[in-house]
Amino acid sequence: MARIVVLGIFVADATYRAQRLPRMGETVLGDAFSLGPGGKGSNQAVAAARAGGDVAMLTRLGRDPFADMALDVWAQAGVAFAGTRHDIPTGSAFIFVDSASGDNAIIVAPGVAATIEPSDLDGWADEIAKAAVFVTQLEQPQRAAQRGLEIARNAGVRTILNPAPGADLPDAMLALADIVTPNETEAEALTGIAVTGIDSAERAARRLIERGAGAVIVTLGANGALCHADGTTTHIVALSAGPVVETTGAGDAFNGGLATALSEGLPLDRAVRFANATAALSVTQAGAAASMPPRARIDALLA
Ligand code: ADP
Known about the structure:
Layout: E1 4-7, E2 11-18, E3 32-38, H1 40-50, E4 55-58, E5 60-61, H2 65-77, E6 79-81, E7 84-85, E8 90-98, E9 104-111, H3 118-123, H4 125-129, E10 133-136, H5 142-154, E11 158-161, H6 171-174, E12 179-180, H7 184-191, H8 198-210, E13 215-219, E14 225-229, E15 232-236, H9 250-263, H10 268-282, H11 295-302
The chain binds adenosine-5'-diphosphate.
């Protein structure tokens, strides 16, 4: 049984680059194509395992080549798959990138992951109850995330809710989270407070605590993170681990690192520093899952 259980989704990201995006009905020749693993839950599970955590992934997968990709990525990272397989396509995202401007247009089809039900979580309750830390996001149906949080809470398992993609949530759901980890956009979606820096992040964090969250960590991109817990606010400045190459997946690296540190019994302030280091290293590499740093590099950055 794993110390960290991640409920989330996997999608295969198919990225096409062209000098400009096609208009409706038009075909353009592209300059590049790549296919790789994505999905916030999957990225967070990979990040936590690469950071040294003992991780199980709960999700629904299909029985197709994209599911094989998920299983390969998890096997390489040391993530155990503890979910189920179904005759429904695995999720995928088609990402069109305008090479000139960097702008993109995306269609995400969560596929089988959109069919995750609260009853799936009941089936996975033993796995959740034996963990130290439960992590989820909002890419699978919200009622399934809520059921996972309830099961974890009832079993005394530490709960991390990464409220991404951004949406407002019922107070009852926030109250099931020991730690809520929005980025600035997500903090605004939750509170209506425009989060543009440390002061507004602190106001948003206080609002979320009033609504029931146990502790709040607002990630602030290149400004690091703001942690509000037990009535105390701490700003953790971002670390520099080299030139920034790609920030996709930085939030996932942060959440994965946080889960690993907490599963090892670190107090919250030190766990946030570990998460901050994990994310700082991830932005120096291309890709999302591919950019998650190994433990030795995190320890070296923190030393
Ligand atoms: P998201 O990827 O969800 O938008 P953020 O942009 O807030 O999340 O980034 C998450 C974390 O990644 C930050 O709290 C910080 O630790 C780290 N990070 C992001 N950008 C940088 C950067 N340019 N340099 C160092 N660390 C960064």
